[in-house]
Design a protein that fits this description.
alpha/beta
C-alpha cells in the first residue's frame, strides 16, 4: 500500500481580523474579471450610521483612550481572498475594503483640519498605502485607480469625467463621506473613534489557495436558492394564515407581479418598499440616542421587517384568515402602487411631482415613508397624489433651508425629526395635513435670512451646485422658458455644468482696494453671490479672465442667472423685463463686479431662494 503524502498547504483558512490587521501594510489586488466598485451613497451612509451608533453606545466623555480597547466589537462582514503567486486577490469584499479605505483617507485629513494635537493623532497612513524603496502604492493596489486615490489622499480635486465606472464612484463616494460624516464623531471623540475603528471593527478573512476553491466558497455563501429573503419569509407567513386556497393563489399572484415591478425599479426597491410602508403606517417607537438603548419599531422594521410583522400582528389588525387576505389584496396592493408611482417620479422629472425628483437627487430617502404616511387605504388616486405633493414640497423647502444654514442632512441628523413628523401626519386628511406642514415650516429656526452669510466650502459643493441649478431653472421657468430643466444643470454630460467663481483666484490685484488682505479676498470670492453654474468647457477656456473679459461670454450662455449680469439681458427681452417688474426681485446688470456688486448679488440670491422655497408652494401643491 502506497503511503499518502500530506498536503503541503491548508486549502481554506478563516481568521477574524481587525480593520488594522486587514489593511496595515497588506497589499490586495483584484482580478480583471471582478466587477467594478459600485457602492452607492446609501451604502456608504448606512455604513457610517452603523459605525456611529455602535461607537457612541460605548463612548463616555470620562473615558480615557485606553478604555476604548474594552468597547464592544462590531462585525463588518467577510472578505474572501485567493492567495496565489505570492499575492492576495480579492474574490469578494472589495466594495467594503474600498469604502473603508476612503473613510480612512477622510479621517486622515479630518484630524489635520481639526488641528488634533500630534501626540493625539491616530496614524492611519499605513492602512491606506505603503512605501517600498521610495515607491508609494495603495494597499488596494489597482493601477487604474492610482491617480484618483492619489488625488484624494493629497486633498486635490480630480476630474473623473470620462473615467471608468469605479473611478467615478470612488470620487463620488468620497464626497458622500465628507458630506455625511456625523458631527457627533468630530472634536474630542475623533481619536477615540479612529482607535475603535482600527482595533474593534472586525472582518472575517477567508483565504483559499486557488481561484477554484475561493469561488466555491463565494458561491456557497451567496447561493440565493438556499436563503429566503425577508420578503419571501413575510409572504410565506401571510399566505400560511389565510383560510382559503383560492385567496392564497390570488394573493400569491398579486404579490409576485408587484414584487417584479419593484425589482424593475431598482435592485433593492423590493426591500425598501416594505421598510417605507411598514414604518409609515405602523411604527410607533424608535431607538433613543443613548448608550445601551434597544432597537424599537422603526429600527426593527429596517432590519427584520418579516419578524416584526409576525410579532405585531394584533397591532396591524391581523386577527383572522380574512385579515391576512385583506392585508395583501388591499393594503399591500394599494401602498405598493403608491410607492411605485413615487419612485418613478424620483427617477424621472414628472409634471406635478417635481419635488419628489429634487428630494431624491439630494438622496433624502426618508421622503418615501413620509409621503406614504398620510395616505389612507381608502383614498382615491387624486387625494393620494395631493398628499404626496404636499409632503414632497414640505421636504423640498426643509432641505433648502437646512443647506443655507449649514445644517447637516445626513440620515442620522434628521431621522428623529422625520420619524416624529411621520407619526404626526399619519392618515391625515388633505386640509389638516396642509395646516400641520405650514405650522412645521413656521416653527423652523432655519430661514433664508442666512443666505446673506452663505458660502461655498469643501464639504458643500454638491449642495451649492443643487441650489444654483434650482434657482437658475426657476428664473428661466418664470420667464416662460419651458425647455429649461433642472436635470440639464446637474446631469453628468460631456460638458457638465460646474460651479464657477465670478472672480478668478489670480484677480486679487484688481480688487485689492476692496479688501484688507488677499486672504479676505480668497474667502469672499466663495460667497454665494459670486457663484454661477457654467459648462466645464467655459471654466477651462475663460475662467481666468477678468470680469470684463467674461461678461460677454456670460451673456452668450443659455443660462439666465449668468445672462442677468449683462446689460443687454434687460433689452428686447419682454418676458424677462416683465418678470423683473412683477417679482420685485433686485435683478440688475453689473458692468463691473467689485465687492459691492457681489454683496448685491448675494442679496438677490437670498430673495430668489425665499421666493422659490416660499411656504405658499404648499398651497400650489394642492392644484
Amino acid at each position: 500500500m502506497t503511503e499518502q503524502k500530506p498536503e503541503t498547504h491548508i486549502k481554506v483558512e478563516a481568521h477574524t481580523k481587525s480593520v488594522r490587521e486587514m489593511l496595515d501594510n497588506v497589499k490586495y489586488s483584484i482580478d480583471f474579471y471582478q466587477r467594478e466598485y459600485r457602492w452607492e451613497k446609501k451604502h456608504v451612509t448606512e455604513l457610517i450610521d452603523d459605525l456611529e451608533e455602535r461607537f457612541l453606545d460605548a463612548y463616555d466623555d470620562n473615558h480615557s483612550r485606553k478604555q476604548v480597547r474594552h468597547y464592544p466589537h462590531y462585525f463588518l462582514g467577510s472578505v474572501i481572498i485567493s492567495f496565489k503567486n505570492g499575492h492576495n486577490y480579492i474574490i469578494d469584499g472589495q466594495q467594503r475594503l474600498t469604502s473603508l479605505t476612503l473613510l480612512l483617507i477622510y479621517l486622515h485629513h479630518l484630524q489635520r483640519e481639526q488641528e488634533v494635537r500630534e501626540e493625539e493623532q491616530v496614524d492611519v497612513r499605513d492602512m491606506i498605502f505603503s512605501t517600498s524603496y521610495g515607491d508609494k502604492s495603495f494597499n488596494l493596489d489597482l493601477p487604474e485607480r492610482q491617480a484618483c486615490m492619489e488625488a484624494l489622499y493629497t486633498n486635490r480635486s480630480s476630474d473623473t469625467a470620462g473615467q471608468l465606472e469605479s473611478i467615478r464612484n470612488i470620487a463620488e463616494r468620497y464626497s458622500d463621506i465628507i458630506e455625511s460624516f456625523p458631527e457627533a464623531l468630530k472634536g474630542k471623540k475623533l481619536p477615540y473613534f479612529i482607535d475603535w475603528l482600527k482595533e474593534n471593527v472586525d472582518l472575517v478573512q477567508i483565504t483559499a489557495y486557488s481561484d477554484e476553491e475561493a469561488y466555491l466558497i463565494f458561491e456557497t455563501m451567496n447561493d440565493r436558492g438556499l436563503r429566503l429573503t425577508p420578503t419571501e419569509m413575510l409572504k410565506g407567513y401571510l399566505l400560511a394564515n389565510m383560510d382559503s386556497e383560492i385567496r392564497q393563489n390570488e394573493a400569491n399572484q398579486l404579490w409576485k407581479e408587484r414584487i417584479l415591478e419593484l425589482i424593475q425599479l431598482a435592485r433593492e426597491d423590493e426591500l425598501d418598499f416594505f421598510k417605507a410602508w411598514l414604518r409609515a403606517k405602523y411604527a410607533e417607537t424608535i431607538r433613543p440616542r443613548k448608550r445601551g438603548a434597544s432597537p424599537q419599531d422603526f429600527d426593527k422594521i429596517g432590519t427584520t421587517f418579516h419578524k416584526w410583522v409576525h410579532e405585531n400582528e394584533e397591532r396591524i389588525g391581523l386577527h383572522k384568515g380574512p385579515d391576512f387576505s385583506t392585508f395583501i389584496m388591499t393594503h399591500f396592493s394599494r401602498f405598493s402602487e403608491h410607492y411605485i408611482r413615487i419612485r418613478h417620479a424620483a427617477q424621472k422629472l414628472t409634471p406635478g411631482f417635481e419635488p419628489v425628483f429634487y428630494n431624491a437627487y439630494m438622496d433624502f430617502t426618508l421622503q418615501y415613508p413620509l409621503e406614504l404616511a398620510p395616505i389612507r387605504v381608502e383614498d382615491d388616486l387624486e387625494t393620494a397624489n395631493r398628499k404626496i405633493r404636499l409632503v414632497a414640497t414640505y421636504i423640498d423647502i426643509f432641505i433648502a433651508r437646512r443647506i443655507v444654514n449649514f445644517r447637516a442632512l445626513t440620515y442620522s441628523t434628521v431621522v428623529y425629526t422625520m420619524f416624529n413628523l411621520m407619526k404626526e401626519i399619519r392618515d391625515l386628511d388633505v386640509q389638516t395635513l396642509t395646516e400641520v406642514l405650514k405650522a412645521k415650516l413656521a416653527e423652523m429656526e432655519e430661514t433664508f435670512d442666512s443666505v446673506s452669510r452663505f458660502y461655498l466650502h469643501s464639504q458643500n459643493k454638491r449642495s451649492v451646485h443643487y441650489l444654483l441649478a434650482r434657482m437658475t431653472q426657476y428664473l428661466e421657468a418664470q420667464c416662460g422658458d419651458t425647455s429649461s430643466r433642472f436635470d440639464s444643470y446637474v446631469l453628468r454630460t460631456r460638458d457638465p455644468f460646474q460651479v464657477e467663481h465670478v472672480w478668478a483666484t489670480n484677480k486679487y490685484a484688481d480688487l485689492a482696494s476692496d479688501f484688507a488682505s488677499e486672504a479676505e479676498f480668497r474667502d469672499y470670492r466663495n460667497r454665494f453671490g459670486g457663484l454661477l453654474l457654467l459648462p466645464r468647457s467655459f471654466n477651462a477656456s475663460y475662467g481666468d479672465l477678468p470680469y470684463k473679459g467674461k461678461l460677454e461670454y456670460y451673456f452668450g450662455q443659455k443660462n439666465l442667472l449668468a445672462q442677468s449680469l449683462h446689460p443687454r439681458c434687460y433689452e428686447h427681452n419682454p418676458d424677462f423685463v416683465r418678470f423683473v417688474k412683477e417679482s420685485g426681485l433686485p435683478l440688475r446688470p453689473h458692468e463691473h463686479f467689485r465687492k459691492a456688486d457681489l454683496d448685491a448679488r448675494q442679496a438677490l440670491y437670498q430673495q430668489i431662494a425665499a421666493a422659490l422655497w416660499h411656504p405658499v408652494r404648499l398651497e400650489e401643491a394642492l392644484r
